[in-house]
Amino acid sequence: MKRHRFEPARLIAGLTALTVGTGYGLDALGLWQAPGLWLFLALPAGLFLAGLTAAVRAMTRRDTQPTEPPPLKHP
Q: Which of 9, 29, 50, 60 is deepest in the core (most CB within 10 A)?
């Protein structure tokens, strides 16, 4: 299996979506009462945090692996 680079912004965005979805699901089942606009405001706040994380990561990222030239294609 091909290994992928760790991207913290995607992790934050995924956890935000999972949290909001779980909150709405629990509220729909009647197991938890969502406190007002908390779920509505959690998504934009999480996406803002993910964007901020991506920006900081892009500014501080260092490519440690040398890039290899593409393989030559024979006619």
A: 50
How many angstroms separate the Cα of 53 from the Cα of each of 3, 39, 56, 61, 63? 21, 21, 5, 12, 17
The pLDDT of residue 63: 61
Separation between Cα atoms, residue 59 and residue 44, nearest integer Å: 23
- The per-residue pLDDT string of the chain (75 residues; one tens digit each, 9 = 90 and over) reads 788 888 999 999 999 999 999 999 999 999 999 887 888 899 999 999 999 999 999 898 766 555 677 777 776
How many other CB atoms are there within 10 angstroms of residue 38's CB atom? Answer: 11
Distance CA 8, CA 41 (A): 21
- CA-angle at 23, arms to 33 and 17, nearest 5°: 160
